[in-house]
Amino acid sequence: MENPFSAESAVRVNRDLMSVQVLYFGLIRNLVGAAEEALSLPAGATVRQLFDLLADKHGAPFRDALFTAEGTLLANAIVLLDGKNILYANGLDTEIPPDSSAHILLTMTAIGGG
Amino acid sequence: MNSSEPLRHLDSPHEDVWIKSTCYMCWNTCGIMVNRVNGVAVKIEGNPECPQNHGKTCAKGNSGHISLYDPHRVLAPLRRTNPTKGFDVDPMWQPISWDEALALLETKLKKIRADDPRKLVLASFDTRAQSGIFWMAWASAFGTPNQWGGAANYFCGNGFHPVTYLTHGTWFGEPDLRRCQYLILFGTQNGSVVNHLPMDLAAKMADAQMAGMKLVVVDPVGIHAGSTAHEWIPIRPGTDSALALAMIDVLLNEDGIYDREFLRSFTNGPYLVRGDGRYLRDPASNKPLVWDPEAGRTIPFDHPEASRMALEGTFAINGETSPTAFTLFKQHVRKFTPERASEATTIPADTIRRLAREFGAAARIGSKVTIDGEELPLRPAAANWYRGAIAHKHAMLNGLAIQFLNVIVGAIDVPGGHLGSNPLSETPPLRWAPIASADGLLIPQGFARRRKPPYPATKVKAPETLDLIDLAPVAPYGTTFFTEALLHPEKFKLPYSPEMLILSRCNPLMTCANPEVMAEAIKKFPFIVAFACEMTETAQFADLLLPDAHYLERLDVFPNEPTEFMAAGEGEWYWMIRQPVVSPLGQARPWVEVLYELADRLGFLGHAYQLLNGVLDLKQPFAYSATAKYSWEELADRWAKSWFGPDRGLAWFKENGFIVSGRKSVREAYPRIFLKPRIPIYLEYFLEAGREVERTTRELGIDWDTSDYQALVEWKPCPAYDSARPGYDLFVVNFKLPFHALSYTSRNAFLAGLSEQNTYAYSIVLNADTARQKGIRNGDRIRLESPEGYAVEGHALLSECVHREVAAVAGCFGRKSPGLARSYRRGVHFNTLVPHSFERIDALSAALDSCVKVKVTRLKE
Ligand code: SF4
Which residue from B406, B401, B364 is spatially nearest to B176, judged by alpha carbons? Predict the structure, then answer.
């Protein structure tokens, strides 16, 4: 049986988890009540998994503020991963590189008319 | 400035330059050239190189500098000393310095932000370009979600934008006038210098008509668009969708003219529907099922063999019979026979049948055209619509019904049909393409979803914002609900009350509904800050009045958003600049720049910059640093360089006026056949959204109408139809003039002069026969009165160009602010007659019903 306290195992545990720094901007800060937080996620996790974790932590109001009833991101919810908008990558299925910084932005949607 | 100075300079100019910029005299963005002579803007012409308008401007655009030098401009900060507010109440303004004004604002805003930032409300119709994007980022960084349009978005695009989002995947749309052969306009005047891309569409409309396109205008008023059409069809107000549905009935059920292949491949028509109206779904994947006629079984809509799915039919599945959505749609429209529609619309049934057949034949279903080597469907028939058809209680259903005319003949985003305003971009600097939802339906992406799409529905919950948008999951915005929440806060149980309103470039007291009611609403704000160029009615109610820069005095990069102000279909991608032609007069300052100074003082400037980096997708090294402080010009420069490269900064744009970033590919111009996501003709998701609204409002004890959350479109009469009060026998309608926009232009000296000479501008237009029957002659002074007791007066103008049951009032005149000398009480103010009540608001789209019945009385002079 493998010794769970061995140095080799500790390295693997670290390799299996990665840390993600989440920063909140705009209206979402009202809701989370913090400017940033650090989270651990399994290596190779996607943005969707990050949001599942955050929704568990911050509850339904967090999910409702960012997602439509169908589970797609709202028009005024913007997610940047290391400065890049996930809309221009794989959306919620974008894989998070290790030690990433995720910015979650909630802005007003533009109104219109004309 | 000495008043004789400009003339002296003109005699011996030592500066005489033309500056490229963008017009802002209406909602649109024509490219202009402004002639500045010795520091004075003396003339405005169209920029001939600009793809937006090819050198053409309208009378409004030509007269921008007259507003700039209006002797009654607000040019210094003023503080109200009279706490009583009213239209004819003197605010007793006292001048204060900018320093004092900013210190006062800083103190108040700091307190609100610490207490509850939602208590701050921003109201503006200035929602485009640098200013528009930046003030929204400012509000978000401050922490308030409360934004109030307070302008034409009361009833303008409410039944249009959600429909173009659902069917094109973008915010705006227009007919493809390059190839269209048959165009029906419902309650809009494309081609008559109003509405969307006025100069571009005016030119294209003229070309199309000269090339043989038939134009049919369906409108109670036939003065402008109707008079240039091949056929003007006068219609009873608020019944446009009854006509559209009857035409669909003729095409589907009488003549069998519809594009089966388009409906099968690009709509949810083939989806099977259960007895409760919901999709029949695959138990394993939850995907909507379709019928495979060859295999005689159901398969998910995106199954590899789904290309042969059945469009029509009813199938026995697991002991239940399930029709396709299209079968239900086709059966449903049977009740809108031309005969029944004729009763509603007053249009003869024969005419309805003829229009349907002409439209169906013109669509040439099955025809093809090859463009740049790509073979595409050619559908040279389109229907377009706007405010006239949708400023009604059932705005969203009305808009959908008209658009479904285009859908059933396959005239969506293909040559000749109805085109979305750029739902797909594959050209730098920004790329976007709609994606499919789990149910396979169209969801706009990227820049095309900068606004709130109606699908997927947003989560329904107890309202957090004054616009009650949490209770309107498919609405584009909730401007009218905002007013209701202000007027009746007890009904909606918001957890806070508004403390301050900051307002700019909108005038809700004139452009929404009855001004007295709107004034009651606005008086609910304990403190109002208005940025204004002119002493508008709403500015008169301010506690702090700050001089705003005119559009010829301010910098705004990229005002021509591609999903609205860049022509749909073939053409170029181009990005424009609005730049200062002169320095701000007096103490005027661009209002958003003032907000950013306040953000710095309040300590959230870096936070706003971070939001902007995300919204604008700015890349290093040009992204804004959270610890820096940039000038307005630097902010524009970094944005431009991030998008277009280091040698295309602000200086380049100031010199050139606009950039052409590429020519649209065939896929970008006519994207429909290249896209997988489908268009809903059966609004299954409305059922769940409506159920959620019903459940939430019941729990909250709010009485809220959910009856329009139905899967199939319908014409329903407006509340005014139930009014049988004797004597109130005319509908009053509002129509646009080519030389005015909103309330803003009414006091411009050039345009007011034009109005004086125009027969229609300041009159009440009555059908000549109707008027004679009532003993009213041309020029008589008359009074229109609504059942609510609201009244306007004006001179009668008898015309054949108005429906016999209609009194028509133009523009937004009859200004109520004494500070607007030239336009004060000149002309007739339509919105005075429009009541504001929850029952008159479309629960789907938040449009206010402007269908009002009036009694007309002849007055003694
Ligand atoms: S249509 Fe509008 S943007 Fe164009 S010139 Fe006229 S006022 Fe200006």
Answer: B406
**Chain B positions in Cβ-Cβ contact with residue A78 (cut-off 8 Å):** 614-615
Taking one residue from A and the other from B, the number of pairs with CB-CB distance under 8 angstroms is 140
Which structural domains are found in chain A, ordered by start? 7-106 (3.10.20.30)
* β partners of residue A106: A26, A77
Residue A85 pLDDT > 90: no
Amino acid code (one letter) for B566 = M
pLDDT in tens, B827-851: 999 999 999 999 999 999 999 999 9
Q: How many CA atoms lie within 13 A of B411 on its CB side?
A: 36
Contact A74 B27 (CB under 8 A): no
| Cα B586 to ligand 1 centroid, rounded to whole Å | 26
Say what the pLDDT of residue A70 is: 84
Instruction: Please report the ipTM that was assigned to this predicted complex.
Output: 0.81
Helices B349-362, B240-249: axis angle to 10 degrees equals 70
Helix, strand, or coil (residue B516):
helix
Kindly give the distance from the C-alpha atom of residue B72 to the centroid of ligand 1, in angstroms, as a whole number.
23
Q: How confident is the model at residue A6 (pLDDT cuts 50, 70, 90)?
A: very low
Which residue do the tokens 């052409």 mark? B660
C-alpha to C-alpha distances, B500 to A77, B96, B119, B493, nearest whole angstrom: 26, 19, 7, 19
Q: Does A110 touch chain B (CB under 8 A)?
A: yes
Q: State yes or no: pLDDT of B6 exceeds 90.
A: no
| CA distance linking residue B361 with residue B380, whole number of Å | 10
Q: Is A92 on the interface with B (CB under 8 A)?
A: no
Residue nearest to atom 1 of ligand 1 (CA): B198
Please indicate if any CB of chain B lies within 8 Å of the CB of A38.
Answer: no
Structural domain boundaries of chain B? 721-858
Closest CA to B310 of B351, B339, B272: B272
C-beta contacts of A32-38 below 8 A and 24+ residues apart: A32/A58, A32/A62
Pick the CATH number of B721-858 from 3.40.50.300, 3.30.160.250, 3.30.300.30, 2.40.40.20: 2.40.40.20
Q: Per-residue pLDDT tens for B466-507?
A: 999 999 999 989 999 999 999 999 999 899 999 999 999 999
- Expressed in angstroms and rounded, the spacing between residue B418 Cα and the centre of ligand 1 is 23
Cα B135 from Cα B150, distance rounded (Å): 16
